[in-house]
Amino acid sequence: MDQTQDTNDIRAHRARVAIDVYLGLPGVDPDCPIRDLLADMMHFCVSRGIDFDRELKLAVGNFEAEK
């Protein structure tokens, strides 16, 4: 396995850990935890004055560079 794939496997594992924790919270729909987490992140950004769309665009750029 090359280093890029190894690093991306680590990133995917971190996301899995976050989803597992999130699934343990009350009110999270087990059929769509990623969707619920993203919606909650949007609420978080609004409450903190963070531009979610900008962050998402930057995240997509990071993802494209990392794959």
- Secondary-structure element series: HHH
Taken from the alpha-carbon principal axes, the silhouette is flat
Domains (count): 1
Q: Uncertain runs with pLDDT below 50, 5 residues or more?
A: none
**Average pLDDT across residues?**
94
Largest sheet: none
Distance between the termini: 14 Å
Q: What is the strand content?
A: under 5%
Structure write-up:
With 67 residues, the chain is mainly α. The longest helix has 21 residues. The two termini are 14 Å apart. The chain has one domain. The radius of gyration is 14 Å and the shape is flat. It is built from three helices and no strands.
Can you give keywords for this protein?
0% strand, 67 residues, single chain, mainly alpha
